[in-house]
Amino acid sequence: PTPTQMASANDTRQAQKDAADQNFDYMFKLLIIGNSSVGKTSFLFRYADDSFTSAFVSTVGIDFKVKTVYRNEKRVKLQIWDTAGQERYRTITTAYYRGAMGFLLMYDIANQDSFSAVQDWATQIKTYSWDNAQVILVGNKCDLEDERVVATEDGRRLADELGRGPFFPPPQQAGHETDSGGCRRLQNPRNKRRGGGNF
Asked: What broad class describes the main subcellular location of this protein (predicted)?
């Protein structure tokens, strides 16, 4: 195997090990969804591993990372799923919606099509997830401000229209705050121990 394949296999084994760890007070299953190339994988790596790359690698199907954080002296385990945005993987990814307690619905501020698709993604959440799932609309790639085609106010307005939670345009690249507000909101432990409930 190549070094890249070996590293990927090691990451997968570590994620599986972390997922099996039962030493926590609360656990949340979160999904990052949106069109392909909006930056879902980079966002996840930035948050979970404190790393960032501008190289685009398309997610095949679905992948996940586990991050443990501490809030109010409680150990909170986040199981964060990175979903593929391509249509051909849609059947696979929607199968994971049902058990999710929160969604980051992401679009690229420099890509109008990804913003236009938000309504379709929101419909899928409504169709396949449970009623109490929390949703945050995320305008991503804010480092591309010079290429912005989606105004921040349009993002806020759409979040209000959808009625599915707050709007958040996060920092992403190295040098910005790693613990981005979207994930900070989702990891607030207001639900039942190791179970469901509202955030």
From this structure: membrane
